[in-house]
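Protocol step 4 of 5: obtain the predicted structure for the target chain.
Materials: sequence only (see below). No template structures provided, no constraints applied. The aim of this step is simply to have a reference model before the mutagenesis design in step 5. Sequence pasted as it appears in the construct record:
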Amino acid sequence: MDYYYLILLLSLSCMLTFSIAQHEDIPYEDVEDICKTCLCLTAHDNDKRYHHLLSCTAKRFKHILARWPEEFGKNHNSVDIVATFSNNNIELLQQLPATNATLTFSCRHCGIKYLQAPTFMDVPNIRRLDLSWNEITSDVLTPDIFRGPYRMTHYEPIALLDLDLSHNKLHALNRKLFEHTPNLLKLHLSYNELDVLNLPTVLALSSPINLQELDLSHTGIKALSATIFKSLANLRVLNLSGNKFTTVPDQLKLIGRSLIALNLAQNPIANFPEKSFIGMKSLERLNISYMPELRSIAKNVFTPLETLRRLDCSHNPKLQEFDMESLIHSHNLSNIDISHCALRTISLTLDVTKEFNTNATVITVMPWPHLLSLEIVGNPWFCDCNFIQTIEYVNIKHVDKDTQARCDTPYVFSGARISNLTSERICSLKIPQKYKAIAAEERPRFLRKRYIILTVITAAVVVSIGVLVGLSIGAIRRRLKRDDFGVEPIRYTSVRSSNLSAFSNGNTNSIVVNGNGAANASNA
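Step 4 output (structure tokens):
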């Protein structure tokens, strides 16, 4: 037994020696008087817990520090350290200096290409790590990067909660990448060229079972695997914006009970069918903005979202149909944004309010009692009686007056601020015939079917008449030219030409000479 412990001690000593030898030839930034070069701040809260800040941003560093500043003390128990080395030229991120403090570490915009494993072995209490905007590739990002201290027979996990790897050069993930980070709650992978989530990537994403927030925006993906969400029963926030989805992924139903925020903006979705959000019983925030192909939102599409609080549906340039009625069941709505679309009208069934007669007092129950804002600017609104009644029913004070939403039609109200109009005025106003506007659902008159047919027939008749007239004139001209009006043509011969002709024929008797010497031809 003594030999066993001796061998184990020797093994640990060798590992420690190797670790020291592994890093001793790699330079670090000089920590001497580092607080004169970088910003060092120290504060403590009411519980006398110390908070240290080390900011070495944009100092042209090529390495990090070998140890923490002396100003932070030697005992880091119950201490928070926030360290940032962003905007430097650190191509290789070395092993972080040892500390037992709760650590937040940031190294953004540093041009990092390599990570020295195990990078975080001596900082087991690191909670937040930001390595975004670097050049980290899939080959470099291995599970050994995140392993913690070695204890007897295995490596301890690190306490990482928030990991940001966005804006790097990842195309896939190692299947065991997060085996040393079991407490991970937030993972940001946006702006990496994943394109297709292969099996190792799917297994990696499904491994941190406590994950609550996942950002896969702008990664070029167009499909999701059900395997990811079968394990992520606690996922609350999912960002899929800026990808290639043409429909709402069916796999989202697997996290319908936990998901509270879903971002589908900037996807080429053309329409939302009625069953798009079935099963999402806890959703509170939905973003379907900036969709270049979105044209319609089917009726009852929002009906399952009874817990919805915020709906962002703005800057959809082709959106012409929006079912406001299906939001009636979302009683907790506080913000609705349907600005900068192609909407001409929205409507609600006005009898959905409930009136209670209590001691001769009538109380009207509004559909969204917690509504704070309704943003509608940037749409070509058709301000008829029904539209203005809907706006008043929602409550005009919720319309953002600073944006000055205005009417587009009818022409008598074109340019008028919607907040200045009332249903009492609009519904009782008889619009003159010359100002009568085309109904919102009708096409312009010249594009209607009957006018197109009438135009084609008229053009055909005019062309036919023109052809017949042209043919008739041509026939008459040919006839006149052939008949020459029935008169023989008159031929003229000059006197000089006649005498010369007679002389040339030897007939001199027919030539008459006048007294003045002029020769005249006489008749034979």
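Step 4 remarks: The first helix runs from residue 2 to 24. Confidence is low (pLDDT under 50) at residues 3-24, 352-363, 511-524.
Proceed to step 5.
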